[in-house]
Amino acid sequence: DTAVSQTPKYLVTQMGNDKSIKCEQNLGHDTMYWYKQDSKKFLKIMFSYNNKELIINETVPNRFSPKSPDKAHLNLHINSLELGDSAVYFCASSQVRTDPIASGTRRETQYFGPGTRLLVL
Amino acid sequence: AQKVTQAQTEISVVEKEDVTLDCVYETRDTTYYLFWYKQPPSGELVFLIRRNSFDEQNEISGRYSWNFQKSTSSFNFTITASQVVDSAVYFCALTNFGNEKLTFGTGTRLTIIP
User: What beta strand segments (E) does A51-95 contain?
Assistant: First the structure.
């Protein structure tokens, strides 16, 4: 029933390791996102994908590589984990609509997954 | 560039009091969306409301109400008769209609004291 799901919910790992976080949405949405929430609760976009195509890469280190095998999934792989990567990572999705009045397309509300709490030791 | 300011870092009120959370935004876009999200202690991000820049009508949903004023670039959120379950961090956010990314404010931590 869950609309946007993430696995795992918690991830504790050593510096230098490689890890992946998975995200799936069953809302039929076209666009998916990854956000990072730091220890001060600040939320910042990392990546946006529309129908498996990358549309936003917000100056994220190359160690972070998103992969979208289909429009319902957006995974995040992190290489060579660093202490500063410790954070909560949220996946989100939204629907694209064509707006004849305002012209062009618009994306509607972003719905978030439960978050993955990553702790790098 | 877009910016969202939530000047109130923390607010504490006694249960049943009314409380208003402030949000001021900056954008060069003429069409945009504004949002409020709630993050309870359990950590998930819960969508509360979306307004688009065409629609300045205020909205009420139960104990929640929102006041959108383009003239002052503000989108304030009021909780009437607060309850302990309202304790959470509340985020205001902004995006253009393309909604490729949300720009969040820094959040306001609201504590309702029983």
Answer: 53-57, 64-70, 73-78, 87-94
Query: What value does the mean pLDDT take over residues A16-43?
Result: 96
- Please say whether the dihedral angle defined by the alpha carbons of residues A81, A85, A89 and A93, taken in this order, is positive or negative: negative
B89 shares contact with chain A (CB less than 8 Å): yes
The set of residues, in sequence order, having a beta carbon less than 8 Å from that of A40 and lying 6+ positions away, is B106
What is chain B's mean pLDDT, rounded? 94
**CA–CA separation, B68 and A84 (whole Å):** 37
Q: Is A115 in CB contact (< 8 Å) with chain B? A: yes
Report the pLDDT averaged over residues B41-68: 92
Instruction: Check B106 against A44: CB less than 8 A apart.
Output: no
- CA B11/CA B17 separation, integer angstroms: 12
Per-residue pLDDT band at B14 (split at 50, 70, 90): very high
Residue in the structure block whose two tokens are 């949903």: B61
**Is the confidence at residue A101, as pLDDT, over 80?**
no
Neighboring chain A residues of B91 at a CB cutoff of 8 Å = 43
- If you average pLDDT over every residue of chain A, what do you get? 92
Which chain B positions have a beta carbon within 8 Å of A109's beta carbon?
33, 35, 47, 50
Confidence of residue A103 (pLDDT cuts 50, 70, 90): low
Q: Which residues in chain B have Cβ-Cβ distances shorter than 8 Å to A47?
A: none
